[in-house]
TrEMBL record:
Gene Ontology biological process terms in this record: cysteine biosynthetic process via cystathionine; transsulfuration
EC number(s) from the headed UniProt entry: 4.4.1.1
Lineage: Bacteria, Bacillati, Actinomycetota, Actinomycetes, Kitasatosporales
Classification via InterPro entries: Cys/Met-Metab_PyrdxlP-dep_enz, PyrdxlP-dep_Trfase, PyrdxlP-dep_Trfase_major, PyrdxlP-dep_Trfase_small
This protein's UniProt keywords: Lyase, Pyridoxal phosphate
Region (Disordered): 1-20
Superkingdom to which the source organism belongs: Bacteria
Protein name, as recorded: Cystathionine gamma-lyase
Pfam families documented for this protein: Cys_Met_Meta_PP (PF01053)
Organism in which the protein naturally occurs: Streptomyces klenkii
Co-factor requirement: pyridoxal 5'-phosphate
Length: 378
């Protein structure tokens, strides 16, 4: 059994060959030489590509639970939303019922509208307190987001997965924020682990990507077939960049988690900061559950908090020197934004979603505290 760092560095690499690169370059191909009958792993560019395949093997290695049981399979997509859509639309039919979080990613309401237009009933409930348990009767699929984005609430994945399976429902978990090094949903009983690789998985803010992982080959086959029919395929260059980035995943998530906790601790002492959330913070309401469920002390790179109103929050963001005002999270450069500017999240006007990068911890904390001081001046 290898450690997370070793697994991340070696995941998906081919067997070494003399005078060949350790990670072969991207394969750009719309078609392949295909004499005679259709056979072999690569037949047409919309169906498969050797660069995707290597990335998918790598992600599957990271998502596969320790211990007995089948290995995971992964299917790569050009964005996290493409991956989410693939699960929902490959598994749900008119007349089915889906249960979604009411406090999840801001595009989930748009997906709800489209599901309902196709005849799928949708119920929602908050992440905290495992509230989705009450909505499971007759459901075909339960969608979980833990920790939730942007509120950072945590639900008990194993408890919800067990309950959903008793009701005959499949379970999918958005694992974007923890990454497979911080949480393995398949190990906790979920049927699907889904993530936006745009964020912490690849971590450099320079590509869009998504993936779906599952242990049941029938589920991954359905998702892969949806990708083929919808044409939701990743580019080979993006897939290669993503695979390259996995080698530093353990270094990045460990550094970001440690600094995020240090930042959260520093923010506890600021009187203008309310609603502070980070699952690693011992005083956070989700900490005890996160401690049981998340792996290796990796509670994610995101800290959320509320400042006294929109103007105060904007003064704070302007005063930051080491932090980019940008959306998304998980990158090597710290970012922050006033989340209410998008209009899709039920958050106060002064709500800040802060994504911790890999800067020196002391420098980043000092920059945030100085910006808070500047924003508080009359």
């Amino acid at each position: 059994m290898t450690g997370d760092g070793t697994r991340a560095v070696r995941a998906g690499l081919p067997e070494p060959r003399a005078n060949e690169p350790a990670l072969p370059g991207p394969a750009f191909a719309a078609h392949y030489h295909l004499p005679g009958e259709v056979s072999g792993p690569y037949t047409y560019g919309r169906e498969a590509n050797p660069t995707w395949a290597a990335l998918e093997r790598a992600i599957a290695a990271l998502e596969t639970p320790d211990g007995p049981g089948p290995a995971a399979e992964a299917v790569a997509f050009p964005s996290g939303m493409a991956a989410i859509s693939a699960v929902l639309f490959s598994q749900l039919r008119p007349g089915d019922t889906a249960v979604l979080p009411s406090d999840g990613y801001q595009l989930l309401p748009a997906l709800r509208d489209r599901l309902e237009a196709f005849g799928v009933a949708v119920r929602t409930a908050p992440t905290a307190g495992d509230a989705q348990l009450a909505a499971l009767d007759g459901a075909r699929l339960l969608w979980l987001e833990s920790p939730s984005n942007p509120g950072l609430d945590v639900c008990d994945i194993r408890r919800l997965a067990d309950a959903a399976h008793r009701h005959g429902a499949l379970v999918a978990v958005d694992n974007t924020l923890p990454t497979p090094l911080g949480q393995r949903p398949l190990e906790l009983g979920a049927d699907f682990s889904v993530a936006s690789g745009t964020k912490a998985l690849t971590g450099h803010g320079d590509l869009l990507l998504g993936y779906v992982a599952a242990r049941d080959p029938r589920l991954t086959a359905a998702v892969r077939d949806w990708r083929k029919v919808a044409g939701a395929i990743p580019g080979p260059m993006e897939a290669w960049l993503a695979h390259r980035s996995l080698a530093t995943l353990h270094l990045r998530v460990d550094r970001q988690a440690a600094t995020a906790l240090a930042l959260a601790e520093a923010l506890r002492n600021r009187p203008e900061v309310t609603g502070l959330r980070h699952p690693g913070l011992p005083t956070d309401p989700a900490h005890a559950l996160a401690l049981r469920q998340m792996r290796g002390g990796r509670f994610g790179c995101v800290v959320s908090f509320v400042l006294p109103g929109r103007v105060h929050a904007e003064r704070f963001l302007t005063a930051l020197r080491l932090v980019d005002e940008a959306t998304s999270f998980g990158g090597v450069r710290s970012t922050a934004e006033r989340r209410g500017r998008w209009g899709g999240d039920a958050v106060p006007e002064g709500f800040i979603r802060f994504s911790v990068g890999v800067e020196d911890t002391a420098d980043l904390v000092a920059d945030v505290l100085a910006a808070l001081d500047e924003a508080a001046r009359p």
